[in-house]
Each structure stands twice: as C-alpha cells, then as structure tokens.
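Supplementary Methods, section 5.1.

A reviewer requested that the exact input to the structure prediction be made available. We therefore reproduce it here, unchanged from the version used in the analyses.
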Amino acid sequence: MQSLSRVSGLLPAAALALSLACIAPAFAESYSYIATPAVGGENFSTLTGTAEGSGTWYTLYCVDVGTLQMNDILVVAGESQIQQPSATTAILLSAQLSRTSTPCADIAAAGFVYPGGTDVAAANGYNVTVNEYRGVSPKTANITIPLGGTDAHYLVYNVHASADMAVPANTGGLQVLRIRPDS
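The structure derived from this sequence is encoded token-by-token as follows.
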C-alpha cells in the first residue's frame, strides 16, 4: 500500500480503489476502473458565484460508469481545486458527489449547471480566505446499487461558490471503480 500512496496525483481513496482493483477479481464477476471525466474542470475555467443558499451547483466532473446492476459496488474519489487570487473577503465553497441520469454531454451543453440527482457524498462547505485564496475539496463515497437504482449511471462532482472563482486546468478529477460481485 505504501507504494500506491506515492503514485503522483492520486488521492488516498484512489490508492484504496487501485488496491481494490488488484483484489476485486478474487470475489467479483467483473470490475471497471474509470478515470477520464467527460466533463472536466479544464473545460470550465470560471465558476460563477451565487448567493449562499441559492442552490446553484455546477458540475466540474462527470463519469459515465456504464450499465449498472443491482448490488454493483462503486468506489468513488473526486477532488477539485478552486481559487480566487484577487479575493478581498472570504468566499464560501461547497462540494458534493451525486448520481444522475443526465448524460455528461447534456450537462456540458446546459452550461455545467447540475441537473439534479441523488447525493452520494453530502455537501461540505469551507471558506477560502484572502490569505489562502485556494480551496481543495476531496470527496469519497462507497455505493452499493439498490434494486431499481440502475438508471442513474453518471457520477458527478459538483461545486458551489459564493463568489466568482477560477478552476485551474489539470488540478482535479473524478475516479470510479465499479465492482460487479459474483451472482
């Protein structure tokens, strides 16, 4: 495990996901590791700030995990870096992980506004201050797909900010390990 945690750019949860990928074949029918978001922060350079509590969330990353079956297990790790070097007051940032049935391309076409879905990692909020103008929010989740829960096969990493923020290219991402247990 120590060597996995040294892999450049991986979150601790992603290192866990990689280790699970090594053992998944021992107890699973199949597994997939998906780490290329269809909607990426590098395509979304400015996060438009909205008033606190307005409910406007933007999708930074979206991954289509493919066909889901009941009892599939998803191990999800996401992270974003959002910054505002010219901030003169504290800015509230929030992040969440969700499942949705809206395709990634449709989310991008709608201006990256989160279309709604089911939260799988509750929103967390934190302040970005004038002295520390950058915020990083890692989010993780482990999900077992319930009966009737197979339609929402897009995992999304959503953010909200109380002021306009920048999303630097190549500073975050969303990784999903799908495990399909033996029937």
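Residues 74 and 178 are 5 Å apart (CA to CA). These observations are discussed further in the main text.
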